[in-house]
Amino acid sequence: MVAVDAAKHPAPTDGLAAEAIHVENLHKKFGQLHVLKGVSLSARDGEVVAIIGGSGSGKSTLLRCINCLENPTSGIIRVNGEEIRLKPNGFGDSIPADRRQIERIRSRLGMVFQSFNLWSHMTLLENVIEVPVHVLGIKRMDAIAEAERLLARVGLAEKRDVYPAYLSGGQQQRAAIARALAVQPRVMLFDEPTSALDPELVGEVLKVIGDLAREGRTMVLVTHEMKFAREVATHVIYLFNGQVEEEGPPEQIFGAPKSERLKQFIRSIG
Amino acid sequence: MSATTPFAAVSAARSEWLQPHRIVLIAIAAALVLSAAIFMRWDWLPKYYDLALLGIWRTIWILAVTVTLGFMLAVPLGLAQAAGPFWLAWPAKAFCTVIRGTPLLLQLWLLYYGLGSLFPQYPWIRQSELWPILRQAWPYAVVALTLSYAAYEGEVMRGAFAGVPRGQLEAARAFGMSPWKRFRRIWLPQAIHRALPTLAGETVLQLKATPLVATITVIDIYAVASRVRQDTFIVYEPLLLLALIYLIITGILVFGFRKLEAKIPSRLG
Hints:
The complex is a heterodimer of chains A (270) and B (269). With 270 residues, chain A is α/β, with parallel strands linked by helices. Chain A has 9 helices and 12 strands. Chain A is globular and about 50 Å long. By secondary structure, chain B is mostly helical. Chain B is built from 12 helices and no strands. Chain B is flat. Chain A binds chain B through residues 67, 69, 99, 102-109, 111, 113, 115-121, 130-131, 134-135, 163-166, 179, 183, and chain B through 165, 167-168, 170-178, 181, 185-186, 189-190, 193, 264-265, 267-269. Chain A: One of its GO terms (molecular function) is ATP hydrolysis activity. Chain A: Keywords: ATP-binding, Cell membrane, Membrane, Nucleotide-binding, Transport.
């Protein structure tokens, strides 16, 4: 059910772009609570997959299972064709069987959190070079040059020596995006990146994410911003109660939803 | 602020500092020092000068060594309690509780008179290379003070480790840091920074605990003051000087810790 040799799952040869993220039949239980009930998800290179759904639908849990921040109960997770080897942890969940493998995979998945989670004892520049220098082993000089470029790109060049606590939420989140970009991620994971922001700061962050999407970055995005999801996503997944209720291209999901629940969800969110 | 020149800023700061009430206080302090110098007996000073310097050096040395070693012990003690499995957390908790729950003087005497009288009964200890060290008093002083500092700081570090927000460590995990790297790069620095204000206070308390070593024949600055009193029957002058010396060391400690704290902004996310 879990540990399956990665070699049995070669890259697809059907002419489509390679699969960057592949999740199959994912289950997650928190004690008695069955949060994910057999969810599958696929993101090919260059795709932007948006996961939407009401609170408690399991969308954040699904995203956090991709890099095993949350230990799945069962299921198959493949990143760039490489299956994450899992083993039972004795408490009903599966944990990564090979620490080095999961650390290597994580280091190329740029994750952006709802609450930013910039390291508060480091300046922005130190935040951005931390993983390249100390995990990926890139030379400090090169990492700094790249970090300056990325900070400039998100409009924070002049804030490089400032500590996160002195920045607005929008600035912190843009810096967090720069930090995620610094690992040259194959896939970027966004966990409700604008949910903790004041309304007037949402725009600046969405603009940065939108630019990244348009430049062909592969992303999996959990969001409440329906208008934004419609604009940038290539594929939308609507989760309800731990299951995929409906999925498809954004025009179909937002324009012609089939499921009654999805219709209601879109109406309620406006 | 940007409009004023550096010189104007400096002179403004100076005039702000030299306010009337401060001038009065300085005058009173100067008068006190002067009257102490004129009306009290200081003729014993030259004779005990060298011994006093040695005593100050011993006090500072004991403080520095026990604080350093104690802190190195406090980190695992705190970590074990904050995040360790129960078979590590429980002994750490027990150690901290026992040491913090008993007088330091008692611990010092238990070590010195207890272990110190136990060791000579074993020939293999007496014949070992360590014996020349073990037969002196200072190793017992260093061990007792180190354990005491470790226990108090272990408790402080437990709170500091537990207080680092989950998201900080989760971000480190999400970017593929190994457990050791997460600890070294994120968890420990943030915990230390959280603990710094408390550490400063505990270190001053540790300084004021050092005179206890005089009770087991270690000649620190306190022991020197006692020696002067016994030799010359002069009571107040050595004690006043002793108070001044402890005050100065405390001032240096507080200043140093404040500099350290200022290095990182106090608003942790």
